[in-house]
Design brief:
By secondary structure, the protein is of the alpha+beta class. Among the domains are: about 170 residues, Orthogonal Bundle (Lysozyme), CATH 1.10.530; about 45 residues, Membrane-bound Lytic Murein Transglycosylase D, Chain A (Roll), CATH 3.10.350. It contains 13 helices and 8 strands. The strands form 3 sheets. The chain has a 4-stranded antiparallel sheet with strand order 3-4-5-6. A two-stranded antiparallel sheet has the order 1-2. The protein has a two-stranded antiparallel ribbon with strand order 7-8. Helix 2 packs across helix 5. The chain starts with a helix and ends with a strand.
Length: about 375
């Protein structure tokens, strides 16, 4: 009887292990982990976040939106979407969602959606291994209305150890997915009697799992402490404007989103963006006075800054001193307009690109009006 009971227990354990490996969530991970890692290297979005969002938003690929529209991340149409659509009841009845030609297109669009919408840009200041900050940041930026959205993402990541993909190379992720699929297939086909499974191996595997769980718990605690310290010390530091053209010891403006680098001249700080030098204007300056200080013609500095005539120069305005580039720096392929009426010139000044070049890239005519959701191409495809 004892032997029969032991055999039944071992058989039950084997069945549970097979079924656990065959859950919709694990099947989804095995299928899309390599794609998520590839997107991480292309865009900077952590693979763990991509997979967790895919599992949550698409119900592990089983939702109607994923099955019929290849939309794994619940991305709605917005005004810039020109592709196919489908209507699904979400926050409101019959909302418009994007339809993709393949699930891979959905993964790519998800990465681009986070990378190129202004409200998500701050996420890329977080380390790709800091999935908790990404999870809470997505909620802060308005990705979902569910107040427990971050906690749900974090639970999925930790339940399935998705953070391991954040440290993998693309080749490693591909091999891991292949091994997972092979292991699941072998488990299904296995005809080894339960009695042949040695308890010592099971105990060793259990101990190994416990050790990994302890490591993950320690890592989570360290990340939480780091996040608490960062949030406690975090302050928005405004750009500090030099008080006079002769100032030398001025604080460097903080602008992580613009990824600015700088050097000091003998008279005032000169910064660069996209390889183009610029200064911040100060009280009382005009374009003409700046042109005179830097041996430029008044019309020349206006042309450099995409202006046809002298306009009022507010303190803290970016004024370029050399011709801007024909395209934005690498990684800034496009920009998505956040609100109606946003100025194309302001966008060009922000990314140090010529307005004439951006007009040509996008097929715009002079005086083109931008609307919310418009996609502005900043680099040649």
């Amino acid at each position: 009887m004892k032997r029969q009971a032991f055999l039944l227990c071992m058989a039950a354990a084997l069945i549970l292990s097979v079924s656990a490996a065959d859950t919709p969530q694990q099947t989804y991970i095995d299928r899309w982990a390599a794609t998520a890692v590839r997107e991480m290297y292309r865009s900077g979005v952590p693979a763990s976040i991509t997979l967790a969002q895919g599992i949550l938003e698409s119900r592990s690929g089983l939702s109607a939106l994923a099955a019929e529209g290849n939309n794994h991340f619940g991305i709605k149409c917005h005004k810039d979407w020109k592709g196919k659509t489908m209507r699904v009841d979400d926050d409101r009845k019959g909302e418009c969602f994007r339809v993709y030609g393949s699930a891979e297109e959905s993964f790519r669009d998800h990465s681009d959606f986070l990378r190129y919408w202004d409200r998500y840009k701050f996420l890329f200041d977080f380390d790709t291994k800091d999935y908790e900050s990404w999870a809470y940041g997505l909620k802060k930026a308005g990705y979902a209305t569910d107040p427990s959205y971050p906690e749900k993402l974090i639970k999925i990541i930790e339940d399935y150890d998705l953070s391991r993909f954040d440290s993998m190379t693309q080749a490693q992720a591909g091999r891991a997915s292949s091994r997972s699929g092979a292991s699941a297939g072998q488990a299904k086909k296995s005809e080894t009697p339960a009695a042949s499974q040695k308890p010592s191996k099971g105990s060793s595997a259990k101990a190994s799992r416990a050790s990994r769980a302890e490591d993950r718990a320690a890592a989570r605690a360290a990340r939480r402490q780091a996040r608490r310290e960062r949030l406690a010390a975090e302050e928005v530091i405004p750009d500090e404007i030099p008080e006079s053209p002769n100032s030398i010891e001025q604080a460097v403006p903080v602008s992580a989103a613009a990824a600015e680098v700088f050097h000091f001249s003998l008279t005032r700080p000169v910064y660069t963006r996209n390889g183009v030098p610029f200064i911040y204007s100060i009280e009382g300056e005009t374009y003409s006075s700046i042109a005179s200080s830097y041996n430029l013609f008044p019309k020349e500095i206006l042309k450099i800054n995409d202006l046809s005539s002298e306009t009022r120069l507010l303190p803290g305005t970016v004024v370029y001193l050399q011709q801007k580039k024909n395209q934005a720096e690498k990684g800034l392929d496009k920009y998505i307009v956040e609100e109606d009426g946003e100025s194309l010139r302001d966008i060009c000044q922000r990314f140090a690109v010529r307005m004439s070049a951006v007009n040509k890239l996008n097929g715009f005519t002079a005086g083109h009006t931008l609307r919310e959701g418009d996609t502005i191409i900043l680099r040649k495809p």
